[in-house]
Design a protein that fits this description.
Length: 238
């Protein structure tokens, strides 16, 4: 399950309110993209959902339970970090198995889960390599593999492709969309790239200065932008 509801959440850093009261509902299995200019609060919103930051007020429900006070590791969500978060001295297998090893899972169970994830990600042939022996795209897949084995209720991606070159970005974008189709798990994806938002999302959340300007499917936002900000950002040229 991966239903996430934000009820009137706010976030202040000191005296600065970065997120004014915000409501959002994410339904199990959706691919939701947070889009908006740099500094609009995309990462903050993601970190609030993940529990890496505490909300100043309001509450967060995950699958019907109040998760507002739940520590990140117990929220059942997996944040996918950029590929440089891999352990360089460990094999791909050990990198992917890392969260399972930490959870004390038996070696047999770890191997089975790692092999299943590697198969989904076309990494089966690379399990005994080290991250340094992989391409950028393969390293990114290892980082995703480490999230998959935890069988999260939702995957959270914060600009995961921003370090990759343009050609690789297009390929990885398609791979992440494919992965979403295969797993049918909720994915929340942050980007400032309109093309990424339009091509990947079931639902786009357009943010400006911590405020949701519009929520809707790509076509809806394109054809019926609610205001000039949304129109300028992803709307059709008028
Ligand atoms: P985005 O990811 O959309 O670029 P962020 O969520 O990183 O935006 O930042 C939103 C706003 O919150 C920015 O004005 C940023 O400077 C501020 N901010 C983010 N994190 C902190 C922090 N830890 N302390 C103070 N201000 C922060
Ligand atoms: Mg950010």
């Amino acid at each position: 399950m991966g239903n996430i509801t934000l009820n009137q959440i706010t976030k202040k850093f000191g005296e600065v309110e970065v997120i004014p009261p915000l409501d959002l509902q994410i339904t199990d299995g959706e691919f939701v993209v947070f889009v908006g200019p740099s500094g609009c609060g995309k990462s903050t919103l993601m970190r609030l959902i993940a529990g890496l930051e505490d909300v100043t007020s309001g509450n967060i429900q995950i699958d019907g339970r109040d998760a507002t006070e739940t520590p990140p590791a117990k929220r059942g969500l997996a944040m996918v970090f950029q590929s440089y978060a891999l352990y360089p001295h460990m094999s791909v297998r050990k990198n992917i198995a890392f969260p399972l090893r930490m959870a004390g899972m038996s070696k047999e169970e770890q191997d089975a889960k790692v092999e299943a994830a590697a198969s989904v990600l076309n990494l089966s042939a690379y399990l005994d390599r080290r991250p340094g022996q992989l391409s950028g795209g393969q390293r990114q897949r290892v980082a995703i593999g480490r999230a998959i084995v935890r069988e999260p209720a939702a995957f959270l991606f914060d600009e995961p492709l921003s370090n990759l070159d343009a050609a690789l970005r297009v390929g990885m974008r398609m791979e992440i969309s494919e992965l979403h189709k295969k797993l049918a798990t909720t994915m929340i994806y942050v980007t400032h790239d309109q093309v990424e938002a339009m091509t990947m999302a079931d639902k786009i959340v357009v943010l400006q200065a911590g405020v949701i300007e519009q929520v809707g499917g790509p076509l809806e936002l394109y054809h019926r932008p609610r205001n000039t900000f949304v129109a300028g950002f992803i709307g059709s040229p008028k």
